[in-house]
């Protein structure tokens, strides 16, 4: 009562008022005290009440527009209080006497939204009376009513719901969002815009939706929920927990080559990631505790991404974490358990008898004129020895040796609360992930401290994060070493020990002479290691000052420090050092990198509404950024046997090498102006302009402008369509220019390094980087159009987006003559034209919120096409290099970066077993000629997407998400390397079983592959390019939520969620090809428990 008395005494001289005064509030979820205080500021009215009788700390929804004061008060108070006006102009608030019912019972329950989240401040009334209550912070309510009463639940932004009590003592209600009232907000990371008036193409996903797909990381879940967000399958590294995925949003905009990236650069086709308003790295996002994620917004087109200017051409992923909320202390705990099972189903290898037969038919055990000093009887003896082993039952399955069932265990706890002016939150998380290859794994940990202070119109928040990881690669090396191991060799010798070599005697390899075959298990037992450790400290400070109701100032400052150390030691006993000097046996590599950066931004926002029809919002923002990275690398060779990899024990640096260092500092500055105009909730316009300055490109091209213009049209309001049928019908389009700086630092000055040679002129130097001060920014013109629809109160929703992106000029790295001393040189050349289509559809055949039953099916798809232009043979050197390296990619005008290039094949001649090619002139020939190479396929799928099927029945949920990918071509390396193109010496390795069963052997054989005894070098031809159609069990999940159980009250448990998942549990493909060459893919089963206290 103390606060109310002070307010009252201070303003007793204020004149009387009328209940007919109008009030407008736009505060969102605040305490009742804050809402009453704002009403006092607007109306000069004082309130008198008792703190003991009126809970002024409870959370209410304070959103009103030009509403009667009395209506506002009853909505905030829930009609459970009397509101009286005194002659002195003071409002008295006192509790009503409870109604008396004939057959009175106590009813309790919880009110949630359609995602299961509790709703605080919901008004609960007995129908026909003004008696009722409101829900607390956790959506709970308790009310004494007649057993025949009907309860009425109402809340801003949701449809009013009536529920008969019917004698029940527990009534739980799920409110349905009212699209006509609910103002959905698009968070761009810089500004917030109303969804209905925003003209950009965006997708917003809640944290609960991400967790419904899987519990590994937010990136893996996000790919299921939006078709524009694609993770390109990594056929080499498979499910390696330490790999970074290759991500694309709406296709490519850049040429990606290693020469375009310095050691600190990233993938130039990767989107920009923003975490709580500040740019961050993909690694940070992947290691982020997904239990702390509130929402993710994908910004796809220029209207939504132009705010980020030079870094927005590939889209922007905006991640917002949960903020601490007012109220008593709450503790949220989540435990995740995951089981990864190696998927070896795509390996089609020979067994022991098949492998020996393949060797016999291919001539490995037949002496020839090429054989010197070796008699046939010796070959026969070795052959018979191996045959005897096979007859004894030796058929070693090597693939299971380096793999295991990997487990992941994660814990996350967050405690938060606060009072009127201060909220706090502290979180801890830890995850231990064991990969499916033995010895590989990744342990991540983190802590965060969130503080918010509010005083009047000032809001200051600070977020401190400290996190890190410890990553290990498998000591078993590449999985391909075990896929190549011969099945007729034993893993262990006669004493049960792992021998260094599989064959006791020298083994004839059919080409180079005698050879010893290393045991891949032996190297895994050594004390070799490959470890990376990282720690990152980030602090975000933000201040918001509401100068007036229309003007707001925002400033933010981020400072971060990252330290990473990687250490790789290969023991001298490793078989790769066979026949090498002890001075070169054993290697040690240590690389240490330090990164320090800061960002400061400040923004002014002005928003107003004129004549209730013209909504205008303007923003002016400036930002400066600096990031410095330094590295030191050391490589030592030669270690005594049995040493642990201490570099002090090494004999020397690697030959012709010395410690390497690197330093990189870039600075960026930008100024952004944006405006949004909406007329009568029908016509919408967005305008963004940004100018960027950066040290990444040439010194003569330091600044570049970026801009966008967007427009939208609400057809429902325009034509006053029946809202019972049309919930949403909106058109939008945009055009704009964005940029890309994902290349690392491209020097605008020449860089030299000292070498070890001294001549008559003194110390000599080498040119390592050639300057290009005129290197221009890579810019992308983005055109986008979309239509959004929703029918029958959101039971059917659909969205169609089309786009076209032209990147001109591209930044390309070309080869230079060896006389320059520089291997590559970045320049501007050509353009890339990308266009695509996205479709998202969802429908609910069953939508009964009253019974808590909802069945929703959905389909999303994406189709993308790209092509190059205006190269004019500038990149011929890259095409020549691609030909030499047997790459299937080319850089040619009018063709796609996804096109596959090879000589067209007409198949295998049944008479001779030789391949027949088609020349550029259309003539068949037996001669392979690189001049006949042409486009023979395209690796980009014709269409890709996800089919979803979700069922919710009361507290039970079930979701099935199946990915489909149709029409893309793949180069089947299993056919190219393990069926054909097997060298004479390569016959000692295990091969695909088709090398035995599907090769040509006799005249008249109709086969797909050359003669089994043909060892000629096979060129790239269309025979090895196949169309692949795939269906993947991407996510299957089942969950149950416990709430309002008597046993939960005894331990202070408010809510308990249990979920089980299966991810990538099956994969059906139209072709047989090896996947996970260096590291296998995995099938996953996982479980999650979330408890809220």
UniProtKB/TrEMBL annotation:
Q: Name one Pfam family in it.
A: CarbopepD_reg_2
Please state the span of the N-terminal signal peptide per the UniProt entry. Answer: 1-18
Keyword Signal assigned to the entry: answer is yes
Where is it located? Cell outer membrane
Checking InterPro entries in the record gives: Beta-barrel_TonB_sf, CarboxyPept-like_regulatory, Plug_dom, Plug_dom_sf, TonB-dep_OMP_SusC/RagA, TonB-dep_OMP_SusC/RagA_CS, TonB-dep_rcpt-like
**How is this protein positioned relative to the membrane?**
Multi-pass membrane protein
The family note in this entry says: Belongs to the TonB-dependent receptor family.
Name of the protein: SusC/RagA family TonB-linked outer membrane protein
Source organism per UniProt = Aestuariibaculum sediminum
């Amino acid at each position: 009562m103390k606060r109310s008395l002070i307010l009252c005494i201070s303003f007793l001289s204020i004149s009387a008022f009328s209940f007919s005064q109008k009030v407008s509030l736009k505060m969102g979820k605040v305490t009742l005290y804050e809402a009453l205080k704002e009403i006092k500021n607007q109306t000069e009215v004082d309130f008198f009440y008792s703190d003991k009788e009126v809970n002024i700390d409870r959370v209410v929804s304070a959103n009103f527009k030009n509403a009667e004061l009395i209506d506002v008060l009853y909505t905030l108070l829930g009609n459970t209080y009397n509101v009286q006006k005194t002659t002195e102009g003071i409002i008295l608030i006192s509790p009503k006497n409870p109604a008396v019912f004939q057959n009175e019972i106590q009813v309790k329950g919880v009110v949630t939204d359609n995602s299961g989240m509790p709703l605080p401040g919901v008004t609960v009334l007995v129908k026909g009376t003004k008696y009722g209550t409101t829900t607390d912070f956790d959506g709970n309510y308790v009310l004494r009513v007649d057993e025949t009463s009907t309860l009425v639940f109402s809340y801003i932004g949701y449809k009013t719901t009536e529920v008969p009590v019917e004698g029940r003592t527990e009534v739980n209600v799920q409110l349905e969002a009212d699209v006509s009232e609910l103002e959905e907000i698009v968070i761009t990371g810089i500004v917030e815009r109303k969804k209905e008036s925003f003209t950009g193409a965006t997708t917003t996903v809640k944290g609960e939706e991400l967790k419904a797909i899987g519990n590994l990381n937010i990136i893996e879940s996000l790919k299921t929920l939006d078709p524009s967000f694609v993770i390109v399958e990594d056929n080499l590294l498979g499910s390696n927990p330490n790999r970074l995925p290759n991500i694309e949003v709406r296709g490519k905009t850049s040429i990606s080559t290693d020469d375009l990236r310095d050691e600190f650069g990233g993938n130039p086709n990767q989107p920009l990631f923003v975490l709580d308003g500040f740019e961050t790295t993909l690694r940070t996002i992947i290691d982020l505790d997904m239990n702390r994620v509130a929402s993710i917004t994908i910004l796809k087109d220029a209207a939504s991404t132009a705010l980020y200017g030079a870094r927005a051409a590939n889209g922007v992923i905006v991640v917002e974490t949960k903020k601490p909320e007012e109220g008593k202390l709450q503790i949220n705990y989540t435990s995740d358990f995951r089981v990864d099972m190696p998927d070896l189903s795509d390996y089609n290898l020979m067994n022991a008898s098949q492998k020996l037969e393949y060797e016999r038919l291919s001539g490995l055990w037949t002496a020839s004129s090429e054989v010197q000093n070796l008699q046939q009887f010796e070959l026969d003896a070795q052959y018979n020895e191996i045959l005897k082993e096979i007859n004894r039952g030796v058929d070693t399955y090597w693939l299971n040796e380096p793999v295991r069932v990997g487990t992941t265990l994660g814990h996350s706890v967050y405690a938060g609360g606060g009072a009127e002016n201060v909220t706090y939150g502290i979180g801890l998380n830890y995850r231990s992930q064991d990969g499916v290859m033995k010895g590989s794994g990744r342990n991540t940990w983190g802590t965060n401290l969130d503080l918010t202070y509010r005083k009047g119109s000032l809001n200051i928040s600070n977020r401190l994060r400290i996190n890190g990881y410890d990553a290990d690669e498998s000591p078993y090396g590449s999985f391909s070493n075990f896929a190549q191991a011969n099945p007729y060799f034993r893993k262990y010798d006669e004493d049960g020990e792992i021998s260094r070599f599989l064959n006791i005697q020298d083994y004839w390899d059919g080409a180079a002479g005698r050879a010893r075959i290393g045991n891949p298990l032996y190297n895994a037992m050594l004390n070799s290691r490959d470890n990376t450790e990282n720690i990152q400290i980030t602090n975000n400070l933000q201040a918001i000052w509401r100068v007036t109701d229309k003007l707001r100032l925002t400033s933010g400052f981020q400072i971060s420090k990252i330290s990473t150390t990687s250490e790789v030691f290969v023991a001298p006993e490793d078989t790769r050092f066979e026949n090498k000097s002890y001075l070169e046996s054993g290697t040690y590599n240590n690389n240490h990198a330090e990164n320090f950066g800061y960002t400061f931004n400040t923004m002014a926002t002005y928003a107003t509404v004129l004549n209730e029809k013209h909504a205008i919002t303007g923003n002016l923002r400036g930002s400066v950024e600096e990031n410095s990275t330094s590295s030191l690398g050391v490589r030592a060779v030669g270690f005594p046997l049995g040493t642990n990899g201490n570099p002090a024990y090494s004999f020397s640096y690697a030959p012709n090498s010395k410690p390497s260092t690197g330093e990189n500092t870039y600075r960026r500055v930008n100024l952004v102006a944006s405006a949004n105009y909406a007329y009568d909730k029908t016509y919408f316009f967005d305008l963004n302009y940004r100018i960027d300055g950066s040290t990444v490109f040439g010194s003569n091209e330091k600044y570049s402008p970026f801009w966008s213009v967007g427009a939208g049209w609400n057809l429902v309001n325009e034509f006053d369509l029946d809202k019972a049928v049309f919930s949403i019908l909106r058109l939008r389009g945009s055009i704009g220019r964005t940029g890309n700086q994902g290349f690392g630092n491209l020097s605008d000055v020449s860089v030299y390094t000292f070498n070890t040679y001294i001549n008559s002129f003194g110390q000599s130097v080498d040119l390592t980087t050639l300057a290009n001060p005129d290197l221009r920014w890579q810019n992308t013109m983005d055109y986008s159009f979309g239509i959004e629809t929703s029918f029958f109160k959101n039971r059917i929703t659909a969205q169609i987006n089309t786009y076209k992106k032209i990147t001109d000029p591209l930044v390309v790295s070309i080869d230079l003559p060896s006389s320059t001393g520089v291997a590559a040189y970045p320049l501007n050349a050509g353009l890339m034209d990308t266009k695509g289509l996205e479709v998202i559809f969802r429908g609910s055949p069953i939508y009964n919120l009253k019974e808590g039953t909802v069945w929703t099916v959905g389909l999303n798809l994406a189709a993308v096409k790209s092509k190059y232009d205006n190269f004019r043979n500038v990149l011929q050197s890259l095409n020549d290099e691609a030909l030499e390296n047997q790459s299937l990619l080319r850089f040619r005008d009018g063709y796609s970066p996804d096109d596959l290039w090879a000589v067209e094949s007409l198949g295998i001649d049944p008479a001779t077993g030789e391949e027949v090619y088609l020349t550029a002139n259309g003539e068949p020939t037996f001669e392979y000629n690189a001049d006949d190479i042409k486009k023979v396929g395209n690796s980009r799928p014709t269409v890709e997407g996800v089919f979803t099927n979700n069922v919710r029945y009361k507290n039970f949920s079930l979701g099935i998400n199946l990915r489909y990918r149709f029409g893309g071509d793949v180069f089947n390396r299993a056919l190219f390397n393990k069926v054909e193109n097997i060298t004479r010496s390569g016959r000692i390795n295990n091969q695909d079983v088709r090398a035995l069963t599907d090769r040509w052997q006799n005249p008249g054989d109709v086969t797909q592959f050359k003669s089994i005894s043909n060892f000629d070098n096979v060129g790239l031809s269309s025979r090895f390019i196949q169309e692949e159609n795939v269906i993947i069990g991407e996510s299957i999940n089942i969950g149950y939520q416990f709430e309002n159980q008597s046993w939960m009250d005894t331990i202070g448990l408010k809510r308990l969620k249990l979920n089980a998942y299966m991810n990538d549990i099956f994969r059906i493909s139209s072709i047989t090809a090896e996947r996970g060459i260096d590291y296998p893919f995995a099938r996953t089963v996982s479980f999650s428990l979330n408890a809220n206290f």
